[in-house]
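Every protein is a chain of amino acids, and every chain bends into a shape of its own. The protein below has been through that process, and both of its lines are reproduced in full.
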Amino acid sequence: MTYRISDRAVSSGTVHAICFDEKLPSSPSGGQWRNTVSGNGNAVSDECAWQAVEARDRTFDGRFVTGVLTTGIYCRPSCSARHPRRENVRFFADAGAAERFGLRACLRCRPNDVSRDEEAVAAALRMLDAGEEKAPGLAELAEAVGYSPTHFQRVFKRAVGLSPSEYLRARRVARAGDAMSGGASVTEAIYEAGFGASSRFYEASEGRLGMTPSAWRDGGRGVTIHWAVVTTSLGQMLVAATEKGVCRLSFDEGREELAARFPQAELIEGGEAFESLLASVVAAVEQPGQSRAIPLDVQGTAFQEAVWRELQRIPPGETRSYAQIAAAVGKPGAVRAAGSANGANNVAVLIPCHRVVRSDGTIGGYAYGEAIKRELLKREQG
């Protein structure tokens, strides 16, 4: 993934960014409704659920339903109907629990279709993952699961975070990378992954792959990486960059660690053209949060890259939890995966993983130690 970053970002402003819990709180036993509802493996407090309802937050659809005792109906959190009074609302884990309580489904938002949406997306994923030479298009997928193309596009993207065509391209690029890592030639890998022509592969991977496919396969073979270890107020810092942008920024690492990551690349210490970029990176670290555009050359899975983009949207001086990041990329149940993606970030500070904290507000871990993380946050918060 090659792109430019700026520290100037816009807050997502979504309710799930303030109330989704990473840890499952205990809930009282017994009764038809509870102060916490548990759906899809994650508990949601009553307060959090009500905030989601007020915001009509679609990311909570399928995690609980809203029961309105005065009307005898239950709705999705995102239902567009007029909000009921808070004292008339109870939350249930799913449609079945609400119906056992004696409520009926809202005809406007059709909350009992949530499970149907999940089954439809799962069926579509099986079709896309089948690896057939001619993959189904949106119209064929929608017809197979009984939806209109426009509606299914929204359902699929809400569940997966990508449209069906984007998902298919990401899968094909990943399969090509796996094939090349296994020793296949670039041409063989491209065709084995389902691309009809090499041009289609390069078009699909544009903006996602930093190094060329050959370099990816061979651990950086044919790629020149300029690097330096500089002294900063946060300690010794390694900066490395290809001709496309910064590929590594870390603390307390040196040439040995860089060579382990790119064993076949040509590593050159310093360099005249590299000095200007290095100065910009050092300034970004010494004064985090200032608006700068620095080219990056990083790569990851589609999910990792979505997480990294979301990290860059966090305004300087603010923080988010892992659960908030997972919800923001459309996968609220993937809290641990979001944490792993956060940890897989190769360019500290430039992709600001230090802005992620625990849901209870505590600082949480950091690859380079809590002291550096605290200092970065302190500088950003003024």
Notes: The chain has five domains: 16-109, 115-161, 167-210, 224-297, 299-380. The radius of gyration is 24 Å. Residues 164-181 form the longest helix (18 residues).
